[in-house]
Amino acid sequence: MMDAVRIVAELRACASRAGLTGLTIGPARPLEEAARRLRERVAKGFAGHYGLTEGSEERFCRPDTLLPGAKSVICCALSYLRPSEPPAPPPGGLSGVIARFARGRDYHLVMREKLSVVEARLKELVPGCATRILCDTGPLMDRAAALASGLAWAGKNACVFTGEAGSWVVLGEIVTDVELPFDEPSPDHRCGSCELCLAACPTGAIVSPFEIDLNRCISHLTQMSGIIPRELRPLMGTMIYGCDICQEVCPQNAAAVPGDPSDFEPGPVPAFPDLIRLLEMTQAEFETSLKRGSPGWIGRNRLRRNACVALGNIGDPSAVPALLNALHDPSTVVRAHAAWALGRIGDPRGLQILQKRLTREPDPDVLEEIRVALG
Question: Which of 29, 87, 101, 243 lies in disulfide reach of 219, CB 3.0 to 4.6 Å?
Fold first, then answer.
């Protein structure tokens, strides 16, 4: 077998040819610091709606349990930053915003394709070796693995930053039973005294440097199931899936080098979807469009719920007919947020129909939204 140092050099060259931003090696042993921080987040109630409980660190911080005989974790990054990408939709329309990582092709598929190229090269170099690919879908904290391997360093916004690409990256790993030389872990941070991200977060989700309360994070709010807390909806703006605010204000990202746009194009997810079309989207239309992209996993009704919130925040009366139709939707979540949006817009037509719905709406959560909307 080729010596381990040469194997890593070959893998790095392969990763570069595949368009990956970087490749580093970390140990397949418990991520103790990440586990400690995860326990703290759970204890403080900052873990959001992901079902994290005491002991979750055993599932998310143990790469050694993901593959029999695991010795190394090959960590990779891929830039999703496109050149000359507009940060906001054109003014005057009823458009929502999809975070940059979720536009175009599903990043899970793109990253897995590239990791598969590196995996195949490793198996050429070490015949018979065992591997397992992970990309935001397996029981491993991608960011913790990236930090432990020196691939990236942590910012105060809890994003991880790589060299040229800044924090505009998705992460993936290959766990293997091949013993490879490890890279040095990353330094704590390079933010200095800057706290622009803390000041810019509309909901105050960055409660302190490096600490996020997911219950207030806009990205998490767009993805969670059920009813979005009413007091946070006005702060979400027109975000439909994800949020980029804390990355856009970061000086570390000012000189970030874009990746290859062809990696994610063409794809089913537009940057600025039409909100009325999204709200009125049928299941069949969803199956052939957004479901095939990164936001697809949250389902059609959560995206339509988010469209209602965005329309309420825009406040344009031209959205009232579509929102009135949504009051009859089979989904209670869609009906609830449509009622809220109609209250925000305050158009007399909408308020009149809401008044009538008080005696016809069977769901208590929707009824509460109607009452609040009517004041």
Answer: 243
pLDDT in tens, 101-140: 999 999 999 999 999 999 999 999 999 999 999 998 778 8
Query: Which entry of 3, 106, 136, 260 is annotated as an active-site residue?
Result: 136
Q: Is 363 a catalytic residue?
A: no
DSSP line for 192-217: TT--HHHHH-TT--EEETTEE-TTT-
Instruction: Identify the burial level of 183 via C-beta atoms within 10 angstroms of its C-beta, where 0-12 means exposed, 13-18 middle and 19 or more buried.
Output: middle
| Identity of the amino acid at 130 | A
Q: In this structure, what DSSP letter does residue 262 have?
A: G
C-alpha distance from residue 56 to each of 52, 149, 264 (Å): 6, 22, 33
For residue 4, what pLDDT band results from cuts at 50, 70 and 90? very high
Q: Alpha-carbon distance 204 to 64, whole Å? A: 36
pTM: 0.93
For the chain, which residues make up each domain, given as ranges?
Answer: 1-90+101-264, 274-375
